[in-house]
């Protein structure tokens, strides 16, 4: 038993160190490798939990899946939220929840496949409890959201809480919330429900005390040695940012639609102006005109009266009258209204 406990402690320290080390490399490598790591840890956690691997000490039972790998995931999400903000945290949460859903589905498919082909090996992939998996996924999602909210609430200036106490209470609160949600969802109504709750509460307290030094050391290291300031955000920052992103997307979509409408109206206006321009007839260039009768020669070499030519090459229309000078010349004895016109 003692050797098993030592192995569990060494295993936990190793996994915690790997998670924090991977996060510390984000300045050079980004967070892609970190997301891949927590995705792998999620898959391992599910498989180890299904296998029921545990270490028993007097009065306490430590499940390897939750003791080592789930707390490592909490550490990872914790430091991502503190130093990288809600958006990066949502990606981490989506990775954990997505793989937490995918692994049991793959297990169920493999169990069905092997059961059809070779029933003797079906025990390698035993069917999973839908209730337990549902409780696990719901609890994990609620835990990770609560982690961000608790961290911001305990960081309010009016509480004036030291960093070490803020870190420990946030971690312990998440651990105990997980016990309540998971144990209630998975085992409520069963004979061993209360004993499971009691034992798990104690084990999570012990785990929190063991994990806390790693978390506090890392936050202090990033905050002081590397000059990483801890940002104070609203308590619901992780949820508000989701709303803000959706609002931004909605506004962007509205702006795109508005611009498309303006572009369509612009194209319609250009089309109508082009059509109007095509209907306009213009006289350009030099017009060959007879010096005596003032007839104009067209492109085919035919001669036309001035009025006829202009009417056929423009939108102008002519009406005829007689000016005073011509009236005196051509009709000296007649009284002609010089301003009168006839079409």
UniProtKB/TrEMBL annotation:
Domain Vitamin uptake-like sensor span(s) in chain numbering: 17-219
Record has Ribonucleoprotein as a keyword: no
Keyword field: Coiled coil, Membrane, Transmembrane, Transmembrane helix
Positions in coiled-coil regions: 252-279
Transmembrane segments: 6-22, 29-48, 60-83, 90-112, 132-151, 163-187, 193-219
Entry protein name: Uncharacterized PurR-regulated membrane protein YhhQ (DUF165 family)
Source organism per UniProt: Roseimicrobium gellanilyticum
